């Protein structure tokens, strides 16, 4: 099974569009709707970020651009071997969504 096969199976199983742009715009719209209305007293905090170890690989520019545009996700290089990395990520999440996660 290839990556393409897996993606096709996931899209089929959860009825996602085959067109990548439609999929990304759909997620962007859903994220906006879910986090935009707090009139009911309920809120949903969303936080997206791409953490990676820069030593292991580089992200393709197109991937970075789509992450920023559709997910609001900035890539950030970290050292996962350090305890302070966990603390840094947890602080960032708290800043984005409050202490409820």
Quick structural overview:
The chain has 101 residues and is mainly alpha-helical.
Report on this structure.
Helices cover 53% and strands 8% of the residues. With 101 residues, the chain is mainly alpha-helical. It folds into 2 domains: 1-35; 46-101, Antithrombin, subunit I, domain 2 (Antithrombin, Chain I, domain 2, 2-Layer Sandwich). A two-stranded parallel ribbon has the order 1-2. The longest helix is centred in the first third of the chain and has 17 residues, at 20-36. It is flat. The termini are far apart. The mean pLDDT is 81.
| Percentage of β-strand residues | 5-15%
- Alpha-carbon Rg, integer: 16 Å
Low-pLDDT regions: none
Mean pLDDT over the full residue set: 81
| Separation of the first and last Cα atoms | 35 Å
Strand order of the largest sheet: 1-2
Helical element count?
A: 4
CATH class of the largest domain: Alpha Beta
The secondary structure category is: mainly alpha
Q: How helix-rich are the residues, as a percent range?
A: 40-55%
Question: Based on DSSP secondary structure assignment, what is the total number of beta strands?
Answer: 2
**Count of the separate structural domains:** 2
Largest sheet: 2 strands, parallel
Order of helices and strands: HHEHEH
CATH T-level topology of the largest domain: Antithrombin, Chain I, domain 2
CATH 2nd-level architecture of the largest domain: 2-Layer Sandwich
Fourth CATH level, the homologous superfamily of the largest domain: Antithrombin, subunit I, domain 2
Choose one word for the global shape.
flat
């Amino acid at each position: 099974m290839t990556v393409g096969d897996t993606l096709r199976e996931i899209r089929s199983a959860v009825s996602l569009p085959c067109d990548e742009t439609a999929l990304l715009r759909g997620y962007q719209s859903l994220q906006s709707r879910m986090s935009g209305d707090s009139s009911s007293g309920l809120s949903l905090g969303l936080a997206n970020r791409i953490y990676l170890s820069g030593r292991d690989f580089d992200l393709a520019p197109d991937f970075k651009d789509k992450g920023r545009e559709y997910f609001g996700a900035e890539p950030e290089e970290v050292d996962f071997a350090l305890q302070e990395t966990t603390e840094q990520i947890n602080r960032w999440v708290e800043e984005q969504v409050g202490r409820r996660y």
